[in-house]
From TrEMBL:
<keyword id="KW-1003">Cell membrane</keyword>
<feature type="transmembrane region" description="Helical">
    <location>
        <begin position="166"/>
        <end position="183"/>
    </location>
</feature>
<dbReference type="GO" id="GO:0005384">
    <property type="term" value="F:manganese ion transmembrane transporter activity"/>
</dbReference>
<comment type="similarity">
    <text>Belongs to the MntP (TC 9.B.29) family.</text>
</comment>
<feature type="transmembrane region" description="Helical">
    <location>
        <begin position="69"/>
        <end position="87"/>
    </location>
</feature>
<feature type="transmembrane region" description="Helical">
    <location>
        <begin position="6"/>
        <end position="28"/>
    </location>
</feature>
<feature type="transmembrane region" description="Helical">
    <location>
        <begin position="108"/>
        <end position="127"/>
    </location>
</feature>
<dbReference type="InterPro" id="IPR036259">
    <property type="entry name" value="MFS_trans_sf"/>
</dbReference>
<dbReference type="InterPro" id="IPR003810">
    <property type="entry name" value="Mntp/YtaF"/>
</dbReference>
<protein>
    <recommendedName>
        <fullName>Putative manganese efflux pump MntP</fullName>
    </recommendedName>
</protein>
<keyword id="KW-0813">Transport</keyword>
<dbReference type="Pfam" id="PF02659">
    <property type="entry name" value="Mntp"/>
</dbReference>
<keyword id="KW-0472">Membrane</keyword>
<dbReference type="InterPro" id="IPR022929">
    <property type="entry name" value="Put_MntP"/>
</dbReference>
<feature type="transmembrane region" description="Helical">
    <location>
        <begin position="133"/>
        <end position="154"/>
    </location>
</feature>
<keyword id="KW-0464">Manganese</keyword>
<comment type="function">
    <text>Probably functions as a manganese efflux pump.</text>
</comment>
Length: 188
């Protein structure tokens, strides 16, 4: 497999992480923007790199099992987190000052797993194609890191446009990503 192909796969895998990074940017205080951008980029970049390696290591042994449930795991995690974001945003009283809850390591971990499950399946295909796994996962992780860093900053700009509705929009985006993953898997 060529480096261009791996680069394009990396871009494709990073798109869900980019969308989540937008929501991080929309829901982060200005003073925490750099910290959250770095945190999101590290979590998503590492998981987008580790999951193909795990898939590659698993190889064909468990391919059928993983492909049967990966979309459901991602869907459930994204809908739960997105729904929680929407619920919390609606629940807040407009007269009270909004407290920035930030993104905990636990939340980032769940989001990183949910957005990188498809990378596990890609790793399985890498085993069949005899891809240089270290080069592939390095490229994928770096691309995801950069794209997520950009995503948080773009999300911060969007927050200025959407204001207090940013958390609701972020939750809706996560739910849409979950539904997209479920639909894409149904038509494969």
């Amino acid at each position: 497999m060529s480096l261009i192909s791996i680069f394009l796969i990396g871009l494709g895998l990073a798109m869900d992480s980019f969308a989540v990074s937008l929501t991080v940017g929309m829901n982060t205080r200005k003073k925490d923007k750099w910290k959250m951008a770095l945190k999101a980029s590290i979590f998503f970049g590492v998981f987008q790199g580790v999951m193909p390696f795990l898939g590659w290591a698993i190889g064909i042994s468990f391919a059928d099992y993983i492909e049967k449930i990966d979309h459901w795991i991602a869907f459930i995690l994204l809908v739960l987190i997105g729904g929680k974001m929407i619920f919390e945003a609606i629940k807040e009283d407009d007269t009270t000052e909004k407290v920035d809850k930030g993104y905990s390591n636990k939340r980032f971990l769940i989001l990183a797993i949910a957005t990188s499950i498809d990378a596990l399946a890609v790793g399985i295909s890498f085993a069949f194609l005899k891809v240089n796994i270290l080069s592939a996962i390095s490229i994928i992780a770096i691309i995801t890191f950069i794209i997520c860093m950009i995503g948080v900053y773009v999300g911060k700009v969007l927050c200025k446009i959407f204001g207090s509705k940013a958390e609701i929009i972020g939750g809706v985006i996560l739910i849409i990503i979950g539904i997209k993953i479920l639909i894409e898997h149904s038509f494969m």
